[in-house]
Structure prediction request, 597 residues.
Amino acid sequence: MHLSLFRMAAVALLALLPAASAFAQALPLTFASQEDPGRPKTIQGFDRKAMDTAVSPCQNFFQYACGTWLRENPIPADQTAWGRFNELFENNRLILRGILEKAREAAPTASKEMRQVGDFYAACMDEDGANTAGLKPIEGYLRQVANLPAKQALAQLVATLHLSGVNVLFGYGSGQDFQNAAEVIAVADQGGLGLPDRDYYLLDNPRFTRIREAYQQHIARMFVLAGAPESEAAAAAQLVLEMETALANGSLDRVSRRDTRNLDHRMKVPEAAALMPAFDFPAYMKASLTPEVSDINIYVPDYFRALNAQLEARSLEDWKTYLRWHVLRSNAPLLSAPLVEENFAFYGRVLQGRKEQPARWKRCVQATDGALGEALGKAYVEETYGKDGAARMAEMVNNLTGALRENIQQLDWMTPATRQQALAKLSSIANKVGHPTKWKDYSQVPVSRKDAVANKAAVARFDWKRDLDKIGQPVDKDEWFMTPPTVNAYYDPQNNNINFPAGILQPPFFDKTKDDAVNYGAIGAVIGHELTHGFDDQGRRFDARGNLKDWWTEEDAKAFEQRADCFVQQYGNYKAIDEVGLNGRLTLGDCASPSWP
Prediction:
């Protein structure tokens, strides 16, 4: 999905979890095999055969509802998990592949929009071309890094890399002001790491130690594949790990980031620049195409202080090594086979536990959806989405909102003052279904049929400029942060709306031809899940207008924390894998694990 780095603190997403509901698990879906990938199958509705009626529902309801399905559906080798979301995701990917294959073949006679998606997909699928090109697609970036004359010139180069989709040093973009959600301002955040977050660098346990060792070895192998001698590559890998560890030390941990108050540091641009005097931040802002601004939100000031310390302490050659690594890492999935395989060996096998690399067509379908998602999504919607189901969805949302309203009214621990605010917020939640009312216009994005890396960079530049152009403009509450084929949904606390892409509005989650009981047990669980995000540990801190405002009485806030702590303690005692336990604080949102690569 394309979601601004800076909305991560403000948008709670429905993760691809198998526990959406026991009833949803009992809704089987079949899809084409890899040997017959072009034919998505008809998705069935509720099926009793997925249940294991030999098990007593009073003893193990999950096994009773899902047991047969679980036995008959082992995790595929190219997947990290398997459930109803994953099945529907695969089926949608097959539908998208059919659209893209037609677009690739019909490119000369298709509309410009379909030529773009067809050419993007064709360039991604050109494995022979990628193997022949080797490092040529990124030679320009590598040359810019090698020719960097001094650390003082880093600002211009970092802006160039950011515009090309290479995430180095820090994150940057636009975001709604936390105190005034109607205002869009510039924002900057921690970033620049090759591992998912700070815990991977700093936690002292065998699992994370092994990951760090594997990461260092991976960096070295990538440098060797890029032409460096083994001894030089090994030293470079150690240096990169040391530099990223120092940046991780200045980063805010994942639990702390869930409290948006920890990310609210609006300041004048000169104040922000003073956090990092070793980096020409005003020059960076200009080179990154930032409109004229006076204020910026620096999410984690301590990170920029830590970055400044590294900028002062590390040599120019050290920074060239760091930048060279991230140019390689960012583009590796689109380069020659040895780099693609090595990239998967670490990020796929080590971090995610995948046994096999997904087929190239799968990766290219996802790349196209991520890059030109609303152009591809428009074709997907035309093929799959029936507007006559929108009224049924609206009725379900209305009914579930009413049920939540009754629950809030009956809470014996909530005082009238807070209840009044909670009900006002609930009444203000907007509902977006299916797809955008106004589609993105990609007509200015140059797409080559021969150069996948250039296409990636062109889309990155388009997205970057589009994001920064929002600064100072009215908030577009009709904008979507998921593409239409996505099998997911989300709640956005700063816009106070719930969003259900067309990708999830089909069987087994939603079927307008089925009884209400089936739909409430499937998509109803998703709707309820998203509504409650407005009142979870993160969402509750935003008011009905999307502002970061404490509308809770001290008494009610304490009562909420006491009840939430029950879940924290329960899930904190579970083990995810080996010696790694769940993080109960993260369980209050969507993700219970301390690591979610």
About this structure: The domain at 135-334 is CATH 1.10.1380.10 (Neutral endopeptidase; domain 2).
